[in-house]
């Protein structure tokens, strides 16, 4: 009898031998069955050492039960008890389970009687699914056969089918229904292994077996589909096996940390594709996306076919629609197998009918299969046919179903065939550190967001967007602009301009109104402009607003650009959008809208309007009409241009009686957005003040969104910071008290600046670093200032590092606009100083900044 230590050594050595037995991971699928056999052998040996009675069964369940044991997956076991079990046997069971952990196996176990198994399965479909997949490890085979028979007898295929579909729907929701994320979950995400397992569970419940070959022999799959599905399964399995080996743990997400390593393991290398270089990791992920796409294409066909078997089609009403289509129950189907060959336009008509017919819940499997096979019919002749052009535009004019229609068209390759340039971005990765989807998936997310604005059920989320899109004359122009907005990616150069040219040529050939033909390419070209201005420039400066209004030109384009911008930012990543960005965009929209509808606004009237509003707000707090004068006399026009009326009133209420304070004044409040703290700092100007403030916020776990730097005529710094406590859990009242006291103390102390804080960079930046870029140019609007632009990977200490360099070179900071896009920082500073008049000194300053950021 071997000891636990000897068995553990055998377990470890055998696993390592399996790992080295398959140097080419493309052919590693047999690992699953060999790991299962290894686990079987070890478990049976340990079980036999405890001399358990024959009516006590040890059963493998779940993934292990179906003989798909991944390197670091749990070993799921069921210990099936007889109705009565002596206490000594229970004690031996505890010892047995303890030894499993000592050996090094990750065990997931349940100890139940047969009656308890059936009871738990009736309550939880997950338990029922696990029990459905099993093989016997030890015990009486006759009793095991009775167990399997009982499990099947108590399973209702109809209820099981519906429960698993609901489970799939909930699982898809966790991944935003997106199969093409940049770091996909190879097991759980749409198009992952779980979708293939779902088919196996349902066919198992029906007694149809688990193999794709058996489904093919029953006519549920064609030979070609059978081949593609097996190939996709092999790719997914091999990727997951190698991912486990590489991570050395149970890891199902293809994280950036592993993509380069996996690409090398699978033999991918860097290659040139036109104007761009395709990374090895991108080639790997392209293969993964292709496999996921096949799964997304074929599993719905199988699910529909299995539904027909489970829910008898007898008595289903067939309702004719036209000579090409009919409704069989709630499924749209073609009237004859050769409909698409006879009338290729029916390809687009099929999708249009699913939008128009409320009673059509889906497309029948036979019709989906015919659509897939009819893709080659979409050629230049098809695209130039006026009827097809009209059908495609009509898709965007229907009030329901557009998002799911375009997803389905992309899924089955129709969208990329009809617009070949869109096919170019399908599955294309984008390593810009803020997009989490491939280009095509992001595009469909943006379009989904626009459609949500138009649905009454989501009016509460974005009231302004919902109102604007409800009043928009031709919303289909917005949807088409969303479809084209990133179509220029992957071609080298400015994707906005490239995409605009693609959209312009396409629109000229379509049955669109002239205004829409002009609007769509304009939106594509400028889809980044509004977000860049709102986050990089002072949107409360009339000149900024006037320049933007001149670019926009009219209210229709302003509304369209605002809607597309909000939808675009929200479609990049759940982390990128926040209430602060929403407020900046809404304020820029409001100011531009007022200017477009009232062309007589001047600098003077702009400032006067703000001051009148600030006075009105002060009067609401009981201030005398002249209480503000001493404080306002200490400020110049630049201050009033950079701050809105609410900020001016708040500053005045706080400082009107303390304009010559000897002690720093720090006040904070929750911003109107509800997510950001607005912090006011008033103190005698001192060296390194901006750096000192940045260091405080960085080390206290606050992210700085915006900073307005001003110096009064008396030489006081009057600075406003907008910060977000992303790493703190206190209530906002506690945060306000902390900031007001601690920051005032740090400013008063004027201690030597601490050494630079080198925080950990994110894993995304480790694998896809952003090379720092520095640019200093004169401010075109005010010759006294220069604009410093910084692009770098975001990391702790970034702002304070920049501030130290500026302070060391006697550079004054007038304002700072902080824009963080995921892991990428794009910050803009308005600076002044004598050094900036010397070109050589400016070059040296840029060099110093680059060196500091690279360190």
Automatic annotation (TrEMBL):
SMART domains, A to Z: HDc (SM00471)
Cofactor section: Mg(2+)
Regulation: Uridylyltransferase (UTase) activity is inhibited by glutamine, while glutamine activates uridylyl-removing (UR) activity.
InterPro entries: ACT-like_dom_sf, ACT_dom, HD/PDEase_dom, HD_domain, NT_sf, PII_UdlTrfase/GS_AdlTrfase, UTase/UR
Any single GO BP term: regulation of nitrogen utilization
Magnesium listed as a keyword: yes
Domain ACT: residue ranges: 678-750, 787-855
Pfam families from the UniProt entry: GlnD_UR_UTase (PF08335), HD (PF01966)
Domain HD: 439-561
Gene Ontology MF annotations: [protein-PII] uridylyltransferase activity; phosphoric diester hydrolase activity
Highest taxon in the source lineage: Bacteria
Annotated EC: 2.7.7.59, 3.1.4.-
Membrane-spanning ranges: none
Keywords tagged on the record: Hydrolase, Magnesium, Multifunctional enzyme, Nucleotidyltransferase, Repeat, Transferase
Chain spans, region Uridylyltransferase: 1-320
Family: Belongs to the GlnD family.
Biological role stated in the UniProt entry: Modifies, by uridylylation and deuridylylation, the PII regulatory proteins (GlnB and homologs), in response to the nitrogen status of the cell that GlnD senses through the glutamine level. Under low glutamine levels, catalyzes the conversion of the PII proteins and UTP to PII-UMP and PPi, while under higher glutamine levels, GlnD hydrolyzes PII-UMP to PII and UMP (deuridylylation). Thus, controls uridylylation state and activity of the PII proteins, and plays an important role in the regulation of nitrogen metabolism.
NCBIfam families: PRK03059.1 (NF002837), UTase_glnD (TIGR01693)
UniProt note: domains: Has four distinct domains: an N-terminal nucleotidyltransferase (NT) domain responsible for UTase activity, a central HD domain that encodes UR activity, and two C-terminal ACT domains that seem to have a role in glutamine sensing.
Protein name as it appears in the record: Bifunctional uridylyltransferase/uridylyl-removing enzyme
Organism the protein comes from: Formivibrio citricus
Gene behind this protein: glnD
